Amino acid sequence: MNTTDMTSLSAIAARNNADWCASVARSHGIAGVFGERAWWSPRRTPPYYPDAVTLRPDAAPADFLPSVDRGSTGCSVKDSFAVLDLASDGFSGIVDARWIHRPADRPVPEWPGLPAERVLTAERLREWQAAWAGGEDTPDVFRPVLLDDPTVLVLAFRDGDDLAGGVVLNEGAGVVGVSNLFAADSAVVGAVWSSVVTAAADYHPGLALVGYEQGDDLAPALATGFDALGPLRIWLHVS
Q1: 70-108, pLDDT tens digit by residue?
Q2: Strand ordering across the sheet containing 38-40
Q3: From residue 123, how far is each of 71, 90, 144 by CA, in Å?
Q4: Residues 181 and 224 in one domain
Q5: Which of 53, 144, 196, 203 is 20 to 30 A from 156, alpha carbon to alpha carbon?
Q6: Residue 151 maps to which CATH number?
Q7: Domain count of the chain?
Q8: CB 36 within 8 A of CB 199
Q9: Considering the entire predicted model, what is its pTM?
């Protein structure tokens, strides 16, 4: 894959991810804004979600920084091409990751996965969110209204009666985004990734998958047929 193709696919992944961030923000009553080179929220976004996402490699801080809330704790920016230097604006880089992409025509895994169950009720969503958070203090991120968003699927993977893992799939920019993937135990990480690919093919046939991962979490994605694309960086406002 040449550099131009990687940049183009990274831009598609970034737009899809911005669509997902916008969906989460809307579920909290926050209306984000899509500009030509970036998406941003004029109000602080929910925990773990950025206040701005760049959509093109030529995005500049002036495209979004004047419009986000840097006065409260936790303001963050997803630099989708890892090209910005926001240190002079009071930010520190906290995450370096890679976009990932799985072509639509790549065969689904043949090894056994876990059955996918669509999360449709507030009760099931609370269970899912608690498992995603690791069973500790559960942050207020995923609200029931999100289940009514036609672009969003929240899926649980069960091993018998036990919740073994989960994922969110969102359709946007002509692809399906894979996010918030979790496994209840490290032994089932591969099975969860396999299940994600199979479920995505069932719910969204003919569409490529995108997402991003970092560090050791990248390996299971690559083993399930994803390709690594360009880098991204998440910046947190610290001063």
Answers
A1: 998 899 999 999 999 999 999 999 999 999 999 999 998
A2: 33-34, 38-40, 52-54, 76-79, 227-237, 91-102, 209-213, 175-183, 162-172, 152-159, 116-118
A3: 35, 40, 9
A4: yes
A5: 53
A6: 3.40.630.30
A7: 2
A8: no
A9: 0.96
